[in-house]
């Protein structure tokens, strides 16, 4: 497709389980971002990939969170040993080169029971 | 720490009314973006303002960047139900800090 694709759109899991969220950015976009959005909260930056540079992981809230980007394209955000406070919408965005114009996916609604 | 404050947090108006939402900071930004987010979707970029004092129009939406590049406003004329959504502002840091700083958003409901 032409836009940023995220899967799954909804994920319900039990506390303590691991989850993987996938992001397929717009073809040719070298930058990829993960954000978290909780109800009533703004967008919380998690991690940023730019080309072959080392990712900016400064926003990851704990070592239970990790992300990788394979072949400069698809990215996976992994949350290990999920907690109820991890429940949120996880948004992925991509941009071309150094542009700050972000294109967002529709997000993954994560619910940890 | 750079912060962006948006006001009001919530706004519920009738179709046809005008409204203004604000995005304020004590920090200078090199540019500022406005996004609209509808339920179940990601934010969509509406406009980027770059120059202090700049005014941009997008149909019934008018965006203004403050002279000092610390604040911005979004004015909607004759609001329509289709304008309903969460309006987010995001500032691009000045200098070498190019990270986006996000406001918490204004949730707008336009009732028919």
Throw out a few tags for this protein.
heterodimer, A: 113 residues, mainly beta, six-stranded mixed sheet, 10 strands, globular, B: 112 residues, 0% helix
Give me the strand/helix succession of chain A: EEEEEEEEEE
Radius of gyration of chain A: 13 Å
Low-pLDDT residue intervals, each spanning 5 or more residues of chain B: none
Mean pLDDT of chain B: 93
Contiguous helical run count of chain A = 0
Instruction: State the low-pLDDT regions of chain A, or none.
Output: none
Helix content of chain A: under 10%
The biggest beta sheet of chain B is recorded as: 6 strands, mixed
Largest interface, chains and sizes: A-B, 17 and 19 residues
Tell me about the largest β-sheet of chain A: 6 strands, mixed
Number of strands of chain A: 10
Strand content of chain B: over 45%
Estimate what percentage of residues of chain A fall within beta strands: over 45%
The percent range for helix content of chain B is under 10%
- Arithmetic mean of pLDDT of chain A: 93
How many strands appear in the DSSP assignment of chain B?
11
Number of helices of chain B: 0
Summarize the structure.
Chain A has 113 residues and is an all-beta fold.
Describe this entry's structure for a reader:
The complex is a heterodimer of chains A (113) and B (112). Chain A has no helices and ten strands. Chain A is mainly β and 113 residues long. With 112 residues, chain B is an all-beta fold. Chain B has no helices and eleven strands. In chain B, strand 9 and strand 10 (100-102) form a beta hairpin. At the A-B interface, strand 9 of A face strand 5 and strand 9 of B.
